[in-house]
Amino acid sequence: xxxxxxxxxxxxxxxxxxxxxxxxxxxxxxxxxxxxxxxxxxxxxxxxxxxxxxxxxxxxxxxxxxxxxxxxxxxxxxxxxxxxxxxxxxxxxxxxxxxxxxxxxxxxxxxxxxxxxxxxxxxxxxxxxxxxxxxxxxxxxxxxxxxxxxxxxxxxxxxxxxxxxxxxxxxxxxxxxxxxxxxxxxxxxxxxxxxxxxxxxxxxxxxxxxxxxxxxxxxxxxxxxxxxxxxxxxxxxxxxxxxxxxxxxxxxxxxxxxxxxxxxxxxxxxxxxxxxxxxxxxxxxxxxxxxxxxxxxxxxxxxxxxxxxxxxxxxxxxxxxxxxxxxxxxxxxxxxxxxxxxxxxxxxxxxxxxxxxxxxxxxxxxxxxxxxxxxxxxxxxxxxxxxxxxxxxxxxxxxxxxxxxxxxxxxxxxxxxxxxxxxxxxxxxxxxxxxxxxxxxxxxxxxxxxxxxxxxxxxxxxxxxxxxxxxxxxxxxxxxxxxxxxxxxxxxxxxxxxxxxxxxxxxxxxxxxxx
Length: 515
Ligand code: NAD
Known about the structure:
The chain has 18 helices and 23 strands. By secondary structure, it is of the alpha/beta class. The strands form 6 sheets. The chain has a 7-stranded mixed sheet with strand order 15-16-17-14-13-19-20, sandwiched between helices. Strands 10-9-8-11-12-22 form a 6-stranded mixed sheet, sandwiched between helices. A 3-stranded antiparallel sheet has the order 1-3-2. A hairpin with a 6-residue loop joins strand 4 (about 45) and strand 5 (about 55-60). It is globular and about 90 Å long. Belongs to the aldehyde dehydrogenase family.
């Protein structure tokens, strides 16, 4: 196999590389510490959504190449798990420094491959960087418990041990943050890892893996393999993979959850969403409008915590007029342009907008026919607002994942909460109000895993966990925070006796008790 010294040497998926008309660079796998070109004959184009240019190509990695990545991770495990925790933490301390150093390069890669604006791409990296910072305290996070003298001369204590080879399967919308939710926690707690980035934007994962090696992560501890369904299925079936972290759509997530847990693996699966914001008549107009516009249209609506539905309690007319006024001021452009508020989004979005119109919703703002000068081929949709949306409409039932805000109406807070609770998803929900009583009722009665009170995108920082619920999550232990460490570790409970053993009491076959 042709081994390459660095990822940069093989491909630099940035604007510069696109100016040449050479064939697109092929993204290598990372196996056992070497960047290796796949021997596969099948490749998929990675496309810049603002220009439709091919940035690079990922291989549909062959099964034997995948097996060699798992085998490299398996071989690296014994010595990595025995590496002092302080040494493992120091790799993360160095990694956070290197991510800061290369922040602009990571952001440019994300904007080129995914489309979001450069500023938003920096946010993508930063929210992942915070998980790396948190992993620097793994020695405390991974501590067990100790109870002294539970019986005569007997102590009991628990140890959290790494599982072995873990794997991560990523979506396209956060190319840096989501890999960073996964491998830093897994490897710092002593596991080794196989990462499968999204086939749509693999570049950020490659840069991060290269930085992790520069930070001192030994060969084989982190491996990266590319592909789609086949490699995902191989990860689910492989006996040496002990746990899988997945983030993406419900179709893929439930398939992976079922297939991998049937093989006895741990799975944490973060999936789709339909996040609602309830606006009470007493909400602060300016702050609420800013929150709705930012959370509905930021990242072109391609955040799993985007606020895609707003329920106005009372008459929605004035709120909707103001919303349209503010949404119209947003600038749609390529993410690399400094004035861009929204980058490109997917075609599927337009179909769901049309189905909303056909089922009776009013189109207050239509972003479908937008043309961005200089980026005429781009995959753009402008801010779109549909009003009078009801629960039976396709545009409400399906996740749109684009810059589309659906407006609904309710006569009371109770009714608004019931609408949200009937929705199958449970990632996030927010209320905008100046009433503590309404806020407290909402917090208690709402069935969503992440609740915002006058906060539109309540994504918890890494000392908490990302706690989506209902159809937005499958598994028992959430991503990052204490739950994340528990996911990547197996608890072992030790009972020890150190005392002068009394002689002559004979053998007792009764269940030992502490009496
Ligand atoms: P996706 O499910 O299409 O792809 C995610 C990963 O799964 C990719 O690596 C892909 O190769 C693989 N995959 C896709 N279909 C598969 C199949 N049938 N069998 C096996 N593997 C398959 O998701 P996406 O479009 O990349 O990401 C957007 C989705 O992710 C949205 O639904 C969004 O809400 C969700 N998301 C959720 C969170 C969260 O934390 N809840 C965060 C980000 C994104």
